[in-house]
Design brief:
105 residues; mainly alpha
Length: 105
């Protein structure tokens, strides 16, 4: 929000279009970093949900996979085998997401 205000002030004051483009580029870069952080956070939320409530399908419901969530709920996580496989997979996925975001930052 602050960046948008600065851009409007820059346009009103009469800065060159190049300066406004630089400000827009900085705003876009900040937004992409926020999106990257959100992906990392979502991966970790899914991992925790999978370990804590995965046998009830909470991880699948969180991702919007209602059908698989209901199936996992009815079968109690596929006799806990499906739950264990999903929990291990989401742990691996969250770790990979953490590695890629820390390397690129």
């Amino acid at each position: 929000m602050v960046i948008i205000s600065i851009i409007y002030i820059a346009i009103a004051v009469g800065f060159e279009p190049v300066t406004v483009q630089v400000l827009l580029l900085a705003k876009n870069q900040m937004c992409s970093q926020e999106v990257q952080m959100d992906k990392k956070l979502v991966a970790h939320i899914i991992m925790f949900l999978s370990w804590l409530l995965g046998f009830l399908g909470a991880d699948r419901f969180y991702q919007g996979q209602v059908g698989l969530g209901v199936l996992k709920l009815i079968t109690c996580g596929g006799a806990l085998i499906w739950w264990l496989i999903d929990a291990a997979y989401y742990t691996y996925k969250a770790g990979e997401m953490a590695k890629t975001t820390s390397i690129s930052a």
